[in-house]
Amino acid sequence: IVSPDVLEIYETAVRYQFYHVFALLAAGLLMLHAPQRMFSIAGIFFIAGILLFCGSLYLITALKAGGKEIATGIGILTPIGGLLFIIGWLSLFGGLLKMKS
Length: 101
Fold this sequence. Notes:
Layout: H1 4-33, H2 37-65, H3 72-100
Helix pairs in contact: 1-2, 2-3
């Protein structure tokens, strides 16, 4: 029903959501094992990243599949979500480093 480029956008969103759900799970389990603010912060950034990065890609896919115009503001959400993923990973690793000290 959709073109291969639209399907590729959708697959990217699913892949990144899949990976970061496990990162979110790891942050939660680490928070239970060794409560630290860094793990909580990591979880917040992973959730925000999933919403912005994956959500914007899902929205772009839906709009393209429906043949609708994509607003320019939607495209900027994707890299912001990617940045939130990076901050989440840095927070998670920072919490792990604090655990060792």
